C-alpha cells in the first residue's frame, strides 16, 4: 500500500464521514468495555494467541482478568504481524494513551490499569461514539429480545434468525418462540403466525434488517404446508431449515425488511477451539444455490456477505445481474487487508455504486468500530487512488463522494435509516 | 494502476499495433451501429441499469429508441463507477465528440443526435476500422449461416456449435441442419456426414475456428455409434451433448480448425433478467473435466476461456503442461480491470509466450472493439512494466515485442490468418 | 514489483540469512549437477519446451546430452517470459559466467561447456553451498532408503510416505517393506509394527519430518483393525489409503515428527506428458476434508502446502484457528511470482508469524536452491515493504527480522533443527 499524499488526503477526507455501522454484535445494554479483558477477550485475540501456542487454561472463568490479559499480551510477539494486532494497537493508542511502537508483556499491566480508569468514566460510551464519529450501529438480536432499555434510533435492531432456521428441532427454541409470540408452533400456519408476530414486534421497535449466517452447503427451498406438518408432527421438527428460511424471506417481503445473508460458515470445525474460535469453512460453495431465492423474491433486498474471497467474483456477478442482490462488507476470514483490497477493487469496478455496502464492524464492543473502519478507510482510499484518481477517471472530490457512498449513503438508502 | 511515463510509453507503443480480434459477435451485414440505441442496447448497459433499479419497461420494442437511451443514460449516475461505463465514455469521446467529464441525463439527447449523424456517414464502417486500427475480426456464425455478402478476409467466419451440441433434441435444429447440409440425421454416421458438410462449407468460406460455450458441469465423453443410435431412435435425441461435442472435436482435428472452448456459463439463472442479462455461473468447475478431451486430441488446438478468475490458475497450469491448451482472452465476468490484471499477470509469468492469446472484444458492434482493447492495452502495459521492465528483466522495446505477441502475433499463428 | 531502494535494501539484508531448506528432492549421493543436462532436464524446462512445441524425441535416453540441451535452449525464445526461465538465467549468470541479456540457441554450446568444466570441480558441492549460503537441506526419502553415505546434519532425512499410503496394494511395496523392516504385513498390528520400525530407523538417522503428497479428493479416516484385516486378507490390500495415512499420523505423534501435507495433485492427467510433467489438479478440494485429522492429532504439527492459490485462504484460516496447522511454502503451480506475492501477503497479515514457514526449494539439484530462494526473497522484500515498512507498521530492521522468521527461524523451531 502506497502512503503518499493522495492516499493520505483521501483517507483524511473519508475519516470525516459520520458512520452508520450496518452490522455488529453490540449488546446495547453493555455496549462498551468495562476492562481490557473485554477487549482482549474478543475471539480474534484468544484464537490467535491459542493458535500461536497459548494454552486455554488462561481463558477459564476463575482466572483473574488481569492475568488473562497478561497471558494474551505475552503471546503478542508471536502474532504482532496480524491485522488484528493492528486493531488492538490502534485501540491502545486512540483510547488508552499508548505511545510505544509495539505492545509487549511489559505493557500489559499499564494498559490494564489505563483501561480500567478510562472505561470507568461515566460518559465513556458517549466519548467512543464521538471519537469514532459513529451515528448509528445495527445490532443482531435474538428473536425473543424484548428490545427494551436502549435508544433504537442509535442502536438499530436487526432480527437474527439463525436459531429459528437451524434449531427449530430443539424444544427450547419452540418454548422461547411460544413465550414471546403466544403461538405454539405445530404446522405451517402457526409458524407463519409466529413469524408475523416476531416481525411485527421487531419492525415496531425500529428493526431495519433481518439477518442469518449460513453453512456452505445451504440451499433454500420452499416447503409446502403438508411437508411442514409431516415434519413437525411426526419427525420432531427435523430438516425444516430450507423451508423455515424461505418463510422468513416471505416475512421480509411482507414487512419490507432487507435480509442480510452471511454465507459460508461451518460451525465447530475445531471442536476444542476457544469460544467463537471453532468455525471454518469449505470453499466449495456457490451462489447458484440461491438462484431460486433471488428469483422468487424480487422485492426483497439481499445484502450478501461471503466468507471467502474466492467467492467474491460470484458475488460481484450476481450483484451486477440481480437487482435485489448487493455485496455487503468484508466478513470474518475475508476481513484482512489483502482480501478487502482485492474484493473491494473487484466490486467497485463492476457493480453499480449505489449497491455497494462498503463495510460493517461486526464488533462486540464499541471500541472496535474505530480501528476496523480505520483499516477499511485506508484500503478504500488506496483503491480509490489506484483505480479512479491516478488513471484520471475521477477527481479527488469525486473519489471522496464515491467513498462516501460506500461508507454511508448506501447504508442509509438500503436500510432506510 | 500507476500512470507514469513508462506505462504511458508502453501503452502508446501497444496502441500502434494493428488488431486481429479473434472473437466477436459482429453481424458482418450490420457491423456498425445505426443509432445510440445499438450502443446502449448492449446487454452490459441494460443489465447494469436494470440492476441499479431501471424498470424493464423502457426496453420494450414499442418504446422509441431516443426514450430508451434517455432511460439508460439517466441511470448512469448509479453505475458510472463501472468499467462498462468507461467503455461508453470512451466511445462518446472517440466517436461522438463528447468532451465532458461524466455523462449524465443532460447529455442523452445530444449524444443521440451526434450518433445519428455520425453513424449515418457512408464510410462509417471504414472509419471505425481505421480509428480502431482493426485489420480483421472473427465472427461467431450459426451453423447454417450462408456466409455470403461480406469479405471473409476481414470478417473471419467461425463455426459456433452451441446449438448443435445442446439443442439437437429440438426438431427445429435438425430441420435447419438438414436444410443446410442435405443430411437427415438419424444415427452417428449421418451426424458425422452432416458435420463434415458443415466443416467443408465453413472452411471453404475461410473459417478459422470452431467455438462453443459450455456450462460448468460439462464433461465431454466419446459415445459409441450404438449409443447415438439408441438415443436418436428411441429417446428423441436427448442427452447427446457430450458425444456430439466429441464428434465436433473430431471434425476440428480432420479439418485442422482450432476449437475455442468458453467454459463455465449457466444460462437463464436470472429468469426475468434483460435480454442476454440472465446468465451466471457456478464457480465449482474444473478443467479436469476436459482431461480425456485434451489427451485424445493432441492435434487440435484448444484456445480456452474461463468465466471465473478463480479458475485461471487451472488454465495457467493446463496450458503450461498440455501443448494443445492455450489461454484465450478475458471473458465476460472476468473482463474487468482487476480480473484481467490478475489473470494476465499469472499467465504471462508461467505459460510460454507463444501460447498466450491476449484478448478478444466479444463485441456485437464494431464501435466496442476500440474501448475494450484500450482498456486491455492499459492493463497489459501496466503488467509489462511491473513484471518485466521495472525489475530489469526486459527492455522497453522487448516488452513491447512481448505485448505484440499477445495482441497480434499469436492470433496470426494460432488461427493461421 | 517496485524495485526502489527500500526493496533493494530489504532484499539485500534477507540475502545474508543462511538458509535451511525444509523440502527438496536432492539425492545426497548426487546432490549437484554433472552437466547442463542435469539442469535443463528438470521437468520445468522439459515441460515448458514441450508445451511450447518441442517434440519429446529429444528427451530419449539415447540422445546425447549436448543435443538435448540444444533442443531445450532452442525453444527458450518461446518461454523466456516465464519465472522458470528466470531461474535458469540466474543459474547461468551466477554459476556459469553468463553475461548476456537473454539465452538463445547461440549460447547452448558455450553454456554446456562451461557447465561441464564448472561442475567437474572437486569442491563444486561446497561452492554451491557457499554461494547459496545454504546450511542444511531436507531430503525426501523413500521408506526403504538406508540413509547411509552422507552427512545427515547437512542433508536432513525426511520420510516420504506416498508409496506406503497409495501403493500398499502392490506386492512390490510389501516386499520392499518386509525387506527393510523384517515385518510381513498382514493386518493392522503388523503394519503398525512395520511403521514403528521405519520411524525408528528414520529418527535414529536424524529424520526431522514425514511427508506426503495427496490428491484433491483425499479424505483421511481411521480404520479399525478388523477393516484392515478384511482388506488385507480378502481384498488384496485395496482401498486402505485413508487408514494407512491415519496410522502414519499416529506414528508421527508417537515419534514427534511434523507431518508435511502437500495437498491437491492429480497424477498422470496428461498421460503422454514428459517425465514429471503429467500431473495437474482439480481446484475443487477443501481442507474441511482434514477436519477429523487436525482435531484428532493436536500434538502433531502439520506443515501444509496447497497446490492452488485459491485454496490459500483456507490454509490461512485453518492455520489461524488450529494450533497444529502451519502454512508451508509455495508449491509447484503456485510457485511463481504472482501466486507467491498473493499467498504470502494473505498469510503474513493473518497467521501468527511464528507459524509461517516461508519457502522451500523443492529442488532436485542443489544449483536450483539459489535462484528459487532469490525469487522468493525479492517477493518477500516487496511484501514487507508494501505491507509493513511503507505504512509505518515496522521499521526496516524489524521487517528484516520478520523476514528472517519466515526464512530461517521458524524452520529451526518447527522441525527442531
Describe it for me?
Three copies of one chain form a homotrimer. Chain A has 417 residues and is of the alpha/beta class. Chain A folds into two domains: 85 residues, uronate isomerase, domain 2, chain A (Orthogonal Bundle), CATH 1.10.2020.10; 288 residues, TIM Barrel (Alpha-Beta Barrel). Helices cover 49% and strands 8% of the residues of chain A. Chain A has 18 helices and eight strands. In chain A, the strands form two sheets. The first copy, chain A, has a five-stranded parallel β-sheet, covered by helices on one side. A three-stranded parallel β-sheet of chain A has the order 1-2-3. In chain A, strand 6, helix 14 and strand 7 form a beta-alpha-beta unit. In chain A, helix 1 runs parallel beside helix 18, helix 4 crosses helix 7 and helix 17 packs across helix 18. The radius of gyration of chain A is 22 Å and the shape is globular. The mean pLDDT of chain A is 97. The interface between B and C is large, with 41 and 42 residues.
Amino acid at each position: 500500500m502506497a502512503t503518499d499524499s493522495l492516499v493520505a488526503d483521501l483517507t483524511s477526507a473519508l475519516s470525516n464521514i459520520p458512520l452508520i455501522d450496518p452490522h455488529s454484535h453490540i449488546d446495547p445494554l453493555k455496549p462498551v468495555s468495562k476492562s481490557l479483558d473485554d477487549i482482549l477477550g474478543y475471539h480474534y485475540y484468544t484464537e490467535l494467541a491459542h493458535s500461536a501456542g497459548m494454552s486455554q487454561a488462561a481463558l477459564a472463568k476463575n482466572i483473574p482478568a488481569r492475568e488473562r490479559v497478561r497471558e494474551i499480551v505475552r503471546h503478542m510477539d508471536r502474532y504482532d504481524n496480524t491485522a488484528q494486532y493492528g486493531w488492538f494497537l490502534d485501540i491502545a493508542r486512540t483510547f488508552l494513551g499508548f505511545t510505544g511502537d509495539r505492545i509487549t508483556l511489559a505493557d500489559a499491566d499499564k494498559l490494564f490499569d489505563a483501561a480500567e480508569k478510562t472505561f470507568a468514566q461515566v460518559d465513556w460510551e458517549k466519548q467512543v461514539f464521538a471519537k469514532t464519529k459513529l451515528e448509528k450501529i445495527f445490532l443482531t438480536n435474538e428473536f425473543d429480545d424484548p428490545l427494551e432499555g436502549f435508544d433504537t434510533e442509535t442502536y438499530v435492531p436487526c432480527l437474527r434468525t439463525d436459531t429459528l432456521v437451524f434449531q427449530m428441532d430443539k424444544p427450547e427454541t419452540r418454548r422461547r418462540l411460544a413465550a414471546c409470540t403466544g403461538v405454539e408452533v405445530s404446522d405451517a400456519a402457526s409458524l407463519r403466525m409466529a413469524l408475523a408476530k416476531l416481525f411485527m414486534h421487531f419492525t415496531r421497535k425500529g428493526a431495519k434488517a433481518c439477518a442469518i449466517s449460513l453453512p456452505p452447503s445451504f440451499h433454500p427451498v420452499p416447503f409446502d404446508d403438508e411437508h411442514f406438518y409431516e415434519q413437525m408432527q411426526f419427525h420432531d421438527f427435523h430438516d425444516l431449515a430450507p423451508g423455515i428460511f424461505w418463510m422468513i424471506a416471505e416475512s421480509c417481503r411482507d414487512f419490507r425488511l432487507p435480509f442480510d445473508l452471511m454465507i459460508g460458515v461451518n460451525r465447530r470445525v475445531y471442536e476444542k477451539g476457544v469460544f467463537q474460535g471453532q468455525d471454518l469453512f469449505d470453499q466449495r460453495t456457490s451462489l447458484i444455490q440461491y438462484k431460486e431465492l433471488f428469483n422468487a423474491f424480487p422485492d426483497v433486498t439481499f445484502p450478501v456477505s461471503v466468507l471467502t474471497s474466492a467467492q467474491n467474483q460470484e458475488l460481484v456477478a450476481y450483484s451486477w445481474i440481480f437487482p435485489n442482490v448487493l455485496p455487503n462488507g468484508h466478513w470474518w476470514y475475508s476481513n484482512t487487508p489483502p482480501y478487502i483490497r482485492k474484493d473491494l477493487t473487484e466490486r467497485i469496478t463492476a457493480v453499480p455504486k449505489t449497491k455497494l455496502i462498503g463495510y460493517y464492524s461486526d464488533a462486540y464492543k464499541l471500541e472496535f468500530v474505530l480501528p476496523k473502519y480505520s483499516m477499511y478507510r485506508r484500503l478504500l482510499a488506496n483503491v480509490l487512488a489506484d483505480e479512479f484518481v491516478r488513471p484520471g477517471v475521477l477527481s479527488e472530490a469525486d473519489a471522496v463522494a464515491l467513498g462516501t457512498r460506500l461508507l454511508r449513503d448506501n447504508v442509509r438508502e438500503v436500510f432506510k435509516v
